[in-house]
Amino acid sequence: MNDLFCNCRLVGRRFRLAHILFGRDVIEVATFRGHHPGDKNKKNTNQSTDGMLLHDNVYGSIDEDAQRRDFTVNTLYYNINDFSVRDYAGGVEDLKNRVIRLIGDPETRYREDPVRMLRAIRFAAKLNMKINTTTAAPIPALSHLLQEIPSARLFEESLKLLQSGHGYATYAMLRKYNLFLPLFPSFKEHCTKDHSSKCEQMMALVFKSTDKGVVSEQRINTAFMYAAMLWYPVETRAESIAFNSDLSYYDAFMIAANDILYEQVKYTAIPRRFTAMIRDMWQLQLRLSLCSGTQAYKLLEQPKFRVAFDFLEMRAQVESGQLKELALWWDAFEKADSDDRNYMVHVLNKEHSTNKVRRCHKIKSCKHKTQPNHN
Question: What does the entry give for GO biological process (predicted)?
């Protein structure tokens, strides 16, 4: 393929593939895979001590390739000579019964490539199918094997899982089979049995919103999805840092943001172009919450104001109270004409001034009460 097409790129370390590029379209070409027990060439086949295939470049026949496939529904081959579908492992029957079934011994196949566990979840959620009992049984106990997968590959898998148009159903299945925390470990203290924590409510909102966007063919903002998902882990960490130090909340928040992102990229390697956007969205959340009258105009001119406001509205749905009032204020301010905006800013400045005086009186009162009595 590489010799035939000048627009061909060979990709993949574990199994070589040819990508033929036509503008934005990519046609992926693979050879038939064969069995490799007798092949001692480590460039062709190599396994880790856990049984994971590090290299899998043994080529074979279509019959051998069918047995090397992961699921029965993936063993269907279209014959262009007579326009028939060749089924080697009962895939058609499983499709009719809407069953995801692994070929071979499940534990062995998962150890060969732990990402197969994620693929089982993705296919089941996206196609509204059930995972065969034997296929599903080993998954929770083997979820730790995902730690052996390169974080760059897991990032790509996370997008396939959560941006397929069935992200919420996928998230629920990842939780069910203990596969969510190996991908997002910072959520450990936020996971509850009844899915009632702020963090879990936020994830439900962001996944359902993403699903609607996919269905309506809108452009999906990966940075927004990750920013919303990680917001409460960052907020919790920031509160802890601020409480246990003399740092301002803003400084504590910035440290927490860096910590959470640093930890997350170890598991799903979020590209820098996204982490920069995530930080911007988080900073804008603080500015939207703490702005004064004059800053309101500047924030409205920010290129990322709209996405930051959508983020704020999502948080308001989770928390209600003052945050909901803040979201309503920004919504009204954005839609108002210049005269109404000037009035809203005047009222806001007056409220800030009153609150400042009240804080000063409170501080003086506290100091007076704590003054030692020398009489």
Answer: mRNA processing; polyadenylation-dependent RNA catabolic process
Model pTM greater than 0.70? yes
Strand 130-131 and strand 99-100: the pairing is: parallel
User: How distant, in Å, are the alpha carbons of 130, 203, 307, 311, 339 from that of 293?
Assistant: 55, 32, 21, 21, 14
pLDDT digits (tens, 9 = 90+) for 12-39: 777 788 999 988 888 988 888 776 555 5
CB 345, CB 294: distance < 8 Å: yes
Query: Which residues pair with residue 20 across a beta bridge?
Result: 8, 27
Under the banding of pLDDT at 50, 70 and 90, the label for residue 351 is confident
| C-alpha gyration radius of the chain | 27
Q: pLDDT band at 259, cuts 50/70/90?
A: very high
Q: Are residues 198 and 320 in the same domain?
A: yes
Are residues 180 and 297 in contact, defined by beta-carbon separation less than 8 angstroms? no
Inside any domain, residue 245: yes
- CA-CA distance, 12 to 319, in Å (whole number)? 45
What is the pLDDT, as a whole number, of residue 44? Answer: 47
For residue 303, count other CB atoms closer than 10 A to its CB. Answer: 8
Which CATH number characterizes residue 310's domain? 1.10.3090.10
First to last CA, the chain: 97
Neighbours of 75 (CB within 10 A): 22
* Nearest one of 107, 128, 120 to 179, comparing CA atoms: 120
310 shares a domain with 265:
yes
Would you say 340 and 306 are in contact if contact means Cβ atoms under 8 Å apart? no
Q: Is the pLDDT of residue 141 over 90?
A: yes
Tokens of 311: 């983020």
Domain membership of residue 249 as a residue range: 184-335
pLDDT of residue 359: 38
Amino acid 28 reads: E
Q: Report whether 123 contacts 161 (CB < 8 A).
A: no
305 pLDDT exceeds 90?
yes
pLDDT attached to residue 208: 97
How many structural domains are present in the chain? 2
Distance in angstroms (rounded) separating the CA atoms of residues 61 and 77: 13
Average pLDDT over residues 191-201: 92
C-alpha–C-alpha distance, residues 340 and 336, integer Å:
6
